[in-house]
Request: fold
Amino acid sequence: MQNTTLVVENLVTGFKTSEGSFNAVDGVDFKIEGGKVLGIVGESGCGKSITSLSIMGLVPKPNGFISSGKILFEGQDLLKLSEPEMQMIRGNRIAMIFQEPMTALNPVFKIGFQIAEILETHQHLKRSECKPICIELLKRVGLPRPEKVVDEYPHQLSGGMRQRVMIAMALSCNPKLLIADEPTTALDVTVQAQVLELMKDLKSEFQTSILFITHDLGVIAEMADNVLVMYAGKVMEETDCETLFDEPLHPYTLALLCSRPERIKRGESPICIPGMVPSPFDMPKGCAFAPRCALSKDICKEKKPELKAISPNHKVRCWQYYSEEEQCQNI
Amino acid sequence: MSLENSVKSQSPWQIGFKRLKKNRLAMIGFTLLCIVVIISVFAPLITRYDRDAIDTLNSYQKPSAEHWLGTDELGRDTFTRLLYGGRISLSVGLVSTSIAVLIGVTLGTTGGYHGGYIDNIIMRIVDVFMCFPFFLIAIVVAAILGPSIWNVMIISGILGWTGIARIVRAEVLSIKEREFIEAARALGLNSKDIIIKHIIPNIMAPIIVYATLGIARGILSEAGLSFLGLGVKPPTPSWGNMLAAAQSMRSLRLHWWLWIPPGCLVFFMILSINFLGDGLRDALDPKLKQ
Reply:
């Protein structure tokens, strides 16, 4: 199972708005190996969710568009597929879990019906054959009394139970890739731990690759094999999970790690990153993080750095890691 | 175990109808409606007279044990005609509303879901249709094609879909942004399945309310057109053309049993449907809590 599940190359996803167009995702590259977890971290609006929607082919139309790049899923370029072909893949070979379990289930249908719908669509099962499979799926995600839950409505379940139902739905067709877009943000801490544990178990059971999007570094430490730190639509740092926590290189990553609440002592105010994420219409000429960066130099304001490989599995986008000559050549 | 049994799964509909049961006015309306529907449907079992049986010797009879609501100028039994008229009036209401709902929901969901220029075109068609004055068009069509029950149904349906299309479109616009629609897309459903299986069940409440009130409107416009002689053609009875008896000064003064019963029936029917419609709106709208 060492083959690569997903390769994303130079993905650019833009939006047209009344104020002009901008790129929410600006040249993102990454790949996910079979059975591995790639975590994407970043602040709100840095392009995490748009990256996942681009992979699913669900960028909001008509304003959103993918202007360049390749998304190779098991060797197949998803961007070249027609809508019906994408519908065959969605939910079947690539599944997605959403942030808000409270709203991601249709309130007017029973749980069993909603799971059965996927089985009917992708596995061409008959309605009558679905019920035992639904119960089996619900049992596998650790829901109590699954044979009752299939006949219940979403409003009768708690948030954690609904997220388990969402996971059961996502896993119903044994997908090769699971995209989890902040799956635990809406849950409280104990339930969050259970859900993460469940996802880990299921990953090793089915060899599913997971693209895990979150802004919680604790969750990343728990789940991810590799991590992508994104800022303003660009990858700032890319490495494996341990390296990220042991030797973070990019000033943004450092700032994120310092601002974690668990590092704050009693009575101290949290360490914030000063400033705001730049508006997509008003991007700095140089590095997008330069205005907020404590270490910014003249070159940072003038020119955008490229992603540079520091070691085989550690890439960073920051002028600090370029030698003097390289910096001079670029000016 | 007892606790688990007490929280039985209730669909949103069951909860809504439970709430409806508590609304007294709506239940009175519902009961009246049911009675009228039942006696109209089973008319042949209730009356022993034939709908169009002429008995000129017994014309203009006062209400009696023989003829409960008297007879008209041709000696036909008014009560019998009232029952059969109910069939016509109710079916005009039902059919015209069905046409309106069918067109309105189809165009409303299509426009709302797809947005963009499709939505623009559909909404401009709605604007155009809203400009047509209903009675004028109805009279012109009746004048050209001749009065008939089918014409009333079709005109009323074709001119009546705009309101529901707007309501449905607005509902779809808000529903389609909800996460479960995105989740449905992420699960690989196509647009048709998403609209039919996920969006329409979520907007059934306003559709039902509008359709209920639409039936009242259909009955009313049938009565109006038939009263003017442009709707249902005699000898087929309808409440509207029975009311036309009141056009004669003599009947208006002397034969009250010819026009008061159909008038009352139209009045109470519309009233009870409106009560029911209002009750349904209150019961099915989760945002309104007593």
